Amino acid sequence: MRTTVAASAAGALALVGALSQAGGAVADEQLAYSSSTGVGVHNAYEKTTFPYFADALDSGAGMLELDVWTNVFGASWRVSHSNPLGSNSNCVNAANAGELRTKARDQGLPGCLKDMKVWHDANPGHRPILVKVELKDGFQNNGGRGPAALDALLTSTLGDALYRPAELVGGNADLDSAVQERGWPARSALAGKFIFELIPGTVEQANPLDTLWTDREYATHLRDLAAAGRLGQAAAFPAVLGAAAPDPRTRYADASIRPWFVVFDGSASTYAAAGFDSAWYDQRHYLVVMTDAHAVAPAIDGTNPTEAQARDRVALLAGRHASIASSDWNALPSVLSTVLERGAAQ
Asked: Residues 317-340: what's their mean pLDDT?
């Protein structure tokens, strides 16, 4: 009799736990996207991080990062960390779900996007995924790899799987006024969507001859499309790179492009530092991607922390108003799928 009672009690507790977890998941999805904190993976295209990009998509991570090269010395949009001439990636250019882990890797951005579309079709209603694209050497507009060409590539491949700037703007004049008035949609409303973030690349930033970085070039593109009544063609969101206070958009001499930045990206250690007003971003419903989450004092391992350490770090940065806490924790899927309420005490 005791065994039966104990088993029944254990079953009841398990049921309560399952219902509680399910309720938590439902509650998470009802949060506005700008009111939640997720977890990102740095350089998710590298084979040492995930054997195939489909594995990155399956991981549960809220953000995946790609490095893209555009220079005229190579073909198309290449995906690689350090090879500017060719791709070195886990993308396979799949045509159907059966090819996601069977075709040759080392495909460029078009191939990564094809993998995303095939995976998206096989996983309807998937979590919203922020795709962070570092344009290593910037746009090459004269070589046919400028902002409009990127929009066309994203649109032709992903179609309605994209969440676009025009959808966020709605009836407002620009992105800034839209998010300050309404915030971002609920996570449930963004189910099945990819949101593309663009940042300047390390090579671009180090090039003294490059005076038009990705962030400014794409924000100008958005402003001009809106003025022409064609904002619906835009497919990505430019990010202000580098944590700074109070409003880092003042670095842009052309004030007319400032309202086209509602995504910010920089060091978690800076955003989380004592005295830094990270709540300023949250109050205005701006997204903040906090990189190198592991490096915030006290530092933890950047690739293999314990699950408890990683969860505690995500909770800490959620309390510091992160939208995404990013590191290289690809081996911790239970952490990668974490969604917390942004700004709340955890």
From this structure: 98
Q: How many CB atoms lie within 10 A of CB 162?
A: 20
Distance of CA 33 to the CA centre of its chain: 12
Three-state DSSP class for residue 204: helix
Which residues are registered as beta bridge partners of 325? 39, 290
| pLDDT of residue 195 exceeding 50 | yes
Angle at CA 194, nearest 5°, toward 68 and 37? 100
Token pair of 27 as six digits: 């509650």
What letter represents residue 225's amino acid? L
pTM score, two decimals? 0.93
Which residue matches tokens 């978690």? 268
Q: List CB contacts of 205: < 8 A, sequence separation 6 or more.
A: 213
Alpha-carbon gap, residue 111 to 327, rounded angstroms: 24
3-class SS at 94? coil
What single DSSP character describes residue 98?
G
In whole angstroms, what is the distance from residue 160 CA to residue 148 CA? 17
Largest CA distance in the chain: 81
